[in-house]
Specification:
Blueprint lengths: L2 E2 L5 E2 L9 H34 L10 H5 L2 H14 L3 H20 L5 H32 L2 H17 L1
Antiparallel strand pairs: 1-2
Length: about 160
């Protein structure tokens, strides 16, 4: 089809070469975009699945390879026992944040006050030791409640987890 130009002469339609490079680049860009989206989705799903294995135990009460080696049922039972023994878990987190803020404040103080820093470090250390003691007690109780077969399976998972690390 032709169009009339302002001078009245007919102009031919623009010629678009078949198989132009721009169409090829659009396909390549689309493929790259899809691949990147799938990679991001895969990373997100992997992180979610990894987190899902530790679900039930608050992150700051997790005991690394020991928690990972527990069965899902044992992990749920540990969480229940933790919340039974430490119902003010949210308060404990807030207290720890306050201790850390006090440490940061003492580190920034001019003139530096070593006693304030030592006091903040001691408070943080006491809270960490208390959480560790509670975790040790809960872990010992959970292991003691396991059958021989459950304990063997726990040992196998623990050993595999330690080898991976």
């Amino acid at each position: 089809m032709t169009e009339a130009s302002p001078t009245g002469a007919a102009t031919p339609p623009p010629i678009v070469p078949q198989g132009s490079g721009s169409a090829r680049w659009i396909k390549i860009a689309l493929a790259i975009s899809v691949a990147l989206n799938l990679a991001v989705a895969g990373l997100a799903a992997g992180a979610w699945m990894r987190e899902g294995r530790d679900r039930g135990m608050p992150r700051d009460m997790s005991f690394g390879p020991f928690t990972e080696a527990l069965s899902d049922a044992d992990r749920r039972e540990m969480r229940r026992a933790l919340l039974d023994r430490m119902p003010s878990f949210r308060e404990a987190r807030q207290e720890l944040r306050a201790d850390l803020a006090a440490l940061v404040t003492s580190l920034r103080a001019v003139p530096f006050d070593p006693a304030a820093t030592e006091q903040a470090l001691s408070a943080i250390s006491r809270r960490a030791a208390d959480r560790l003691d509670l975790g040790r007690d809960l872990m010992a109780e959970r292991i003691s409640a396991m059958s021989d077969a459950e304990r063997q399976a726990f040992a196998d998972r623990l050993e595999r987890g330690l080898k991976r690390r």
